[in-house]
Design a protein that fits this description.
The protein contains 16 helices and 10 strands. It has 450 residues and is an alpha+beta fold. Helix 1 runs antiparallel to helix 2.
Length: 450
């Protein structure tokens, strides 16, 4: 029987004079052998090297003489140690979810009140609002998201009315788009830097490339302005009648032409009245977030810009806008399953152009996951609590008949799960813990009490 031990725990043991023998060969992602099954590891640098290769857990197999010994040569009960460390890790993850939810709730309500005031000011003045309020709100959200990429999942709410939709949509698009932009910025910048590094290695002189070799797509000041544009992207809708925006049925041609003006017409008017039209990051997101992302994309506007002219950050704004609209409940439609929404968006924009694929990849990585703290349905009928979106790592808490389990189950990493019955049933939508509150065991209920 193989038992996984966290590599940090092994590093601590070896650093104190202990020894590790895996009893099983350990390979990296490129099938390079890192540890032979019979190798005695007593040098902490070996484990540090393995950790740098992206390995966070090491398998120990006692049947083939695998084991862990302390500095006195006494064998450590690594099975118990592994389970203890595993449970501790899960509890820490649940605690982190608890803290994130509490913080997100406060920030969400604060942002919602601020956008309500902005909308009220625009309606009363015909276009003017307190810019300082918007700037502080966006900065607060941006700081929160920079530290916690997946935090947008705690900031989104189900929408039931037009007013709530407009308030929430501003927050949702801002938070989702910023999470995607941060991911894109890191990945695209790294790709360019690797290309430059490879070019240098292949013989180009450093003076030909500049020194130091470094590239960043968007700098912090630019990201702040982009976030402002995301928050205000639909601000022009405030000047369009509610009965048109919230119409329970298809729009007439005339009504659709009026709605289209919220971006390049009324949106730009509001920016001009508040002296924001000179900021290209804000102006572009407001004006062009409905433009085509590829040549020939239908029902896009304004048609004065081609797909290649639309900046990357505006493309991200459009994807976030589409995703939030699809997954929100309105008077004229039901909300679509988030996973179905991501799939539809990916299919629509995949293989259109190379740069758009970078954007799409970042979008899917951030949004196309099962957010920590959500509830998923498994193919066998069980409900499971998502502890970590990577994998995802889940804790089943009901039996296949929907009854709460009395004993605590171990978390399961579905990425390595081969049993088809233990895979996520994508036909069923994600649930909020609130929706399954009565079924949650006590140790999972605690994170909801905020």
């Amino acid at each position: 029987m193989k038992v996984k031990i966290n590599i940090d725990q092994l590093i601590e043991i070896v650093s104190k004079g202990g020894t590790v023998k895996t009893g099983v060969d350990i390979y990296n992602q490129n099938d390079l052998l890192l540890i032979d099954k019979d190798m005695l590891v007593n040098n902490v640098n070996t484990l540090l090297y393995i950790k740098k290769n992206g390995i966070t857990d090491i398998c120990i197999q006692p049947e083939t003489a695998g084991g862990i010994w302390d500095h006195n040569g006494k064998e450590i009960d690594f099975i118990s140690a592994g389970k203890k460390e595993f449970v501790s890790t899960i509890e820490k993850k649940i605690q982190k979810i608890t803290e994130l939810k509490k913080t997100a709730k406060i920030k969400y309500e604060h942002a919602k009140q601020n956008i309500k005031q902005v909308i009220l000011d625009i309606k009363q003045t015909g276009g003017e609002f307190d810019y300082e309020t918007v700037e502080k709100t966006v900065t607060d959200l941006l700081n929160f998201l920079t530290v916690n990429e997946s935090a947008f999942s705690y900031l989104t709410k189900e929408i039931f009315s037009y007013d709530d939709y407009l308030y929430n949509h501003s927050i949702n698009v801002c938070t989702i788009a910023m999470a995607v932009l941060n991911r894109f910025n890191d990945q695209f910048s790294d790709t360019v830097n690797r290309f430059l590094s490879n070019a240098y290695v292949q013989g180009l002189k450093e003076k030909d490339l500049g020194s130091p070799i470094s590239y960043v797509q968007y700098l912090p000041d630019e990201i702040r302005d982009i976030a402002l544009g995301y928050f205000l992207h639909d601000v022009g809708k405030v000047l369009i009648a509610d009965e048109i925006l919230n119409k329970n049925g298809p729009l007439t041609g005339e009504e659709f032409e009026l709605v289209k003006q919220h971006s390049y017409g009324k949106g730009l008017t509001i920016l001009t009245r508040n002296n924001l039209d000179h900021n290209p990051y804000v102006r572009n997101s407001v004006q062009f977030h409905h433009c085509a992302l590829y040549s020939g994309e239908p029902r896009c506007y304004p048609e004065t810009r081609t797909a290649i002219e639309i900046p990357i950050y505006v493309k991200i704004c459009k994807l976030a806008d589409i995703y939030d609209a699809m997954t929100s409940k309105r008077v004229y439609k039901e909300a679509i399953n988030p996973i179905v929404s991501v799939t539809e968006i990916f299919r629509k924009y995949a293989e259109k152009d190379s740069l758009l694929q970078f954007v799409l990849h970042a979008f899917v990585k951030v949004v196309g996951i099962y957010p920590a703290g959500s509830i998923v349905s498994l193919q066998n009928g069980q409900l499971a609590y998502v502890v970590d979106s990577v994998g995802p790592l889940v804790i089943p808490f009901t039996n296949p008949h929907g009854r709460t389990l009395q004993e605590r189950m171990e978390a399961v990493n579905l990425e390595g799960e081969t049993d088809p019955n233990m895979q996520i049933d994508r036909r069923k939508p994600l649930k909020s813990p609130v929706d399954a509150y009565e079924l949650l065991p006590d140790y999972l209920r605690q994170p909801l009490d905020n």
